[in-house]
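Regression test case RT-17, inverse folding.

Input:
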């Protein structure tokens, strides 16, 4: 075996590797995308949940919009006022206050109020159950299989007696549970005293009541009672505008099935 030839081959390979390395180093320096230190600082200050509650694709998207001046500070619900204060310092602005919000489940289809129409034995996922045609008597109700529980990064959601439940002391209003619910039963509302409709059924009164004892029957008593105009009834279902609701609870008092409930943090 000619060791000189082997040595020459090794040196040639090493030389080629060195040249390629130098070319890649020069290319990376020439083609490098310039970084914005402000965007990096803003991204670092955000909680990193990437939940989209701010209306952007994630924390980096919101940070870029803040740096560009196309977004307003105070949209990060998980970060709250503490994060808003840090962002304001980086931006050289006056600190913005973040309105506390929380997730609410619009369903009262607990096991005492409704029942399953089929014995679902598929994948333990609400999304899978929906594709299989659902399982409860109420086609609008919570499936109780916990997609929202799995999606919540703060452990604020649990399933109790067949229905999802939110712990307001843990909820950060990140809206991850909202996105995870295939029935769209969860919404984000201001953390204040207000009336909340705990139902999403849009069937006529008799049909809705047959499916669930606590269903909204669209009787419009709440709408007629609310002096603030916060309650409207469409498609046989009441809707409460949290921005208009004064928390008087007059609509709660006249609701015949107790579907409108008083939400008091």
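Golden output:
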């Amino acid at each position: 075996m000619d060791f000189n030839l082997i040595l020459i081959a090794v040196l040639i390979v090493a030389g080629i590797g060195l040249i390629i390395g130098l070319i890649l180093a020069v290319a990376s320096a020439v083609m490098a995308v310039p970084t914005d230190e402000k965007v990096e600082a803003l991204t670092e200050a955000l909680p990193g949940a990437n939940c989209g509650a701010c209306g952007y694709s994630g924390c980096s998207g919101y940070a870029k919009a803040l740096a560009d001046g196309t977004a307003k500070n105070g949209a990060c619900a998980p970060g709250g006022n503490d994060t808003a204060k840090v962002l304001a310092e980086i931006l050289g602005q006056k600190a913005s206050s973040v309105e506390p919000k929380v997730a609410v489940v619009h369903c009262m289809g607990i096991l005492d109020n409704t029942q399953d129409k089929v014995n679902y034995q598929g994948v333990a996922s609400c999304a899978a159950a929906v594709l299989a045609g659902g399982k409860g008597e109420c086609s609008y109700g919570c499936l109780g299989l916990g997609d929202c529980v799995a999606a919540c990064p703060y452990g604020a959601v649990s399933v109790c007696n067949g229905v999802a439940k939110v712990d307001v002391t843990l909820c950060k209003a990140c809206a991850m549970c909202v996105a995870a619910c295939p029935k769209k039963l969860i919404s984000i509302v201001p953390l204040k005293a207000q009336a909340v409709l705990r139902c999403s059924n849009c069937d006529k009164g008799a049909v809705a009541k047959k499916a669930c004892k606590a269903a909204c029957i669209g009787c419009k008593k709440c709408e007629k009672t609310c002096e603030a105009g916060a309650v409207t009834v469409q498609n046989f279902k009441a809707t409460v505008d949290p921005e208009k609701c004064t928390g008087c609870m007059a609509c709660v008092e006249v609701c015949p099935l107790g579907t409108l409930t008083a939400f008091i943090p």
